[in-house]
Design goal:
The protein is α/β, with parallel strands linked by helices. It contains 8 helices and 8 strands, in the order H-E-H-E-E-H-H-E-H-E-H-E-E-H-E-H. The strands form 2 sheets. Strands 3-2-1-4-5-8 form a 6-stranded mixed sheet, sandwiched between helices.
């Protein structure tokens, strides 16, 4: 063509850049823990997921919602229309944290139908009984889709900002323990830091993107992280 007309021609083609974004939300009882500002981890997760789902939908992406706790597995199949987004937000608003996190294998069965281009955002406080959350993350990571782990933690957990002798209750087992906060603060903070560093290292070694979010912080960090990962797909 160029030899006959002395003109360059540019061939244009449409490229499908839409993806599926799956939001997996830990709905176990520990997510009901509140910070001093009155915001629970499940509240923070709702705000974050609602914002990310809106951003994804405006880009034409299909969004799906999966809420996991032992008494119920909510499964909202990914779609990209506005009516679906309204159902998505409704399901999100109805979540009531309860019970323990389900067995990893039972939860993994929800994600057997995997699409070609996919981003999974997993929101959890990583409170587990027998590594069931960690095992599920490893299974999802092995499927070679982009996986973002949003580790939610409250400020009073992170700083152990308690005083006096208090009785703490495990929200998932009901077990209680009386603790002298002054005597235990140093040991608690040291062990927590070791756990946080070990968790982040293990996730990154398995190519799982790890970010920690404190429930008294603005959402902009999480939104930036999501958009950066989305642009790479």
């Amino acid at each position: 063509m160029f030899a006959r007309s002395d003109r360059y021609y540019i061939r244009e083609a449409e490229v499908d850049t839409n993806i599926t974004v799956r939001f997996i939300l830990d709905g176990s009882a520990s997510m009901g823990h509140e910070d001093e500002n009155g915001i629970s981890k499940i509240d923070y997760a709702r705000f974050l997921v609602a914002s990310l789902a809106y951003l994804a939908t405006t880009q034409g992406d299909a969004v799906g919602l999966y809420v996991l706790h032992e008494n119920q597995l909510i499964n909202l199949t990914p779609r990209s229309d506005n009516m679906h987004l309204q159902r998505f937000w409704y399901q999100l608003s109805e979540i009531k944290p309860e019970g323990k996190f389900p067995d990893a294998q039972a939860a993994a069965n929800l994600f057997a139908d995997r699409r070609q281009k996919e981003l999974t955002v997993f929101l959890t406080d990583l409170y587990e009984q027998e590594a069931e959350i960690t095992e599920l993350l490893y299974q999802l990571g092995a499927q070679r889709h982009e996986l973002l782990l949003s580790h939610l933690i409250s400020r009073n957990e992170l700083d152990f900002s308690y005083s006096g002798t208090l009785t703490f209750e495990d929200l998932e087992t009901g077990q209680t323990m009386q603790v002298s906060t002054t005597a235990q603060r140093k040991v608690y903070l040291q062990r927590q830091q070791e756990w946080l560093e070990s968790t982040e290292r293990n996730m990154r070694n398995r190519q799982i993107a790890y970010d920690r979010f404190v429930t008294d912080e603005p959402l902009d960090k999480a939104l930036r992280t999501f958009l950066q990962k989305r642009l790479l797909l």
